[in-house]
Amino acid sequence: MTERGSRVLVVGSLNVDATTYVARFPAPGETIAAHGFQTALGGKGSNQAVAAHLAGADVELVARIGDDANGRLALSVLDGFGLPTTGVERVAGAPTGIAQITVADSGENTVIVAAGANHELGPAVVDDVRDRIAGAGVVLTQGELPVETIERLAATCADLGVRFVLNLAPPVVIDPAALAVCDPLVVNEHEARAVGIGAADGDADASGPTSLDAWRAFAAAAVGTVARSVVVTLGAAGAVAATAEGSWTVAAPQVEAVDTTGAGDCFTGTLTAFLAEGRPVAEAARIAAVAGALAVQRRGTVDSYVPRETLLDTVARLDGTGRPDGTGRSEGAGGAA
Fold this sequence. Notes:
By secondary structure, the chain is α/β, with parallel strands linked by helices. The chain has a single domain, classed as Ribokinase (UDP-N-acetylmuramoyl-L-alanine:D-glutamate ligase, 3-Layer(aba) Sandwich). A hairpin with a 2-residue loop joins strand 12 and strand 13. Helix 9 runs antiparallel to helix 10 and helix 10 crosses helix 11. The two termini are 21 Å apart.
């Protein structure tokens, strides 16, 4: 199946990733030797746009880059994926955003981001692309943009009746009115607690429960109070999803992680692509969990994302627990998965 769904408009960050591979993370003040290095496309906006494109969506990316070598690298990579770049504009005098990433042999990573030209994605950009928003099936953005831009985008989508998906990563402080229109709000465990989902007595730093069932209950309670719908990603454990119709747990396939960099972006972009073609949230989340599991088994960010055919072939061999003996399912309450 290769047909495209409704258009996905991604208004998001674009970086170039400089990734160093090490046996372990250095202690403060310590110098260690790396055993690998690569430069590649990154940034949550561009990562999620590529993931959605590979998953079968008709994607348009609105982003900003510098007039520098890194900007030219980013455009060439996007062109290589066949992703339209008409919405990616150069900013004179500004560097392209950079992410300095360190990946340990355990698969875990650290990331330091210098936003560069991404700062130029101000609220006025939303007004400039209002017609593109109106023509989209889903609009997707992330916490890496200026807060005012995220809030203007949410308000514009609400005004035009366009579905708005927000991956609140990093967990910046957003007006509750903007969160309220998210459908879904996509967050990990830490980000969820930052907006009051799963936080013990309002303490975003509390560890809280970790089971999928507990997080499903928290996500369900946030529907209609925090956002229209909620998806919480929980790493190797999987994810939970909740809408007004019900709530679901999605177990992730059990794999050996080589590099977790960009796996959350792969999940979010894939989720959005399948929402755009009309799949229910639970089904889209189940497919996205498989996409993320496939991504962590290879090094890199967008280079680790698989095409739609490979993804759906894998989903067809898996059930919700990762056993290769079913067609894939999510367990839920209050609605059909």
